[in-house]
Amino acid sequence: MAVTHQNDILIKILSRLEKVSKPDKNGWYTALCPFHDDRNHPNLRFNERGFKCLACSEKGNLKKLASKLGIEIDSNPEKSVEVANYDYLDESGKVLFQVVRYQPKGFRQRRPDGRGGWIYNLEGVRRVLFRLPELISTPLETTVYVAEGEKGVLSLVGQGFVATCSPMGAGKWRDEFVPFFKNRAVVILPDNDDPGRAHAEQVAKSLITVARSVKVVALPGLGHKEDVYDWLGSGHNRAELEALVESSPRWELPKPVDLNQLIIDVSGFIRRFVVLPEHYLLAISLWVIHSHAFDHFDTTPYLSITSPEKRSGKTRLLEVLELLVAKPWFTGRVTPAVLARKIDAESPTLLLDESDAAFSGPEEYSETLRGILNTGYRRGGKASICTGQGANIGYKDLSTYCPKAIAGIGNLPDTVADRSILIILKRRMPDETVERFRRRTHEPEATALKGRIATAASSLEVTVPALPEELNDRAADCWEPLLAIADAAGRDCFEKARQAAIALMVKDNYQNDSMGVQLLTDLKQIFSTQTYMFTADMIEGLLSLDESPWNDLRGKPINGKKMASLLKSYGIRSQSIREGNQTPKGYYRADFDDAWKRYLPHTVRQSATSATPSFDSNVQNGPFRSATEAQKSENVADCVQSCANRNVADVADQNPLRGVPGEIEPQNESEVLDQWRDLSIPEWRRILKVSISSGDKGRERYARWMLREVLHDPEYEELGS
Question: Would you state the torsion angle of the CA atoms of residues 65, 70, 71, 77, taken in this order, to the nearest 10 degrees?
Answer without folding.
Answer: 80
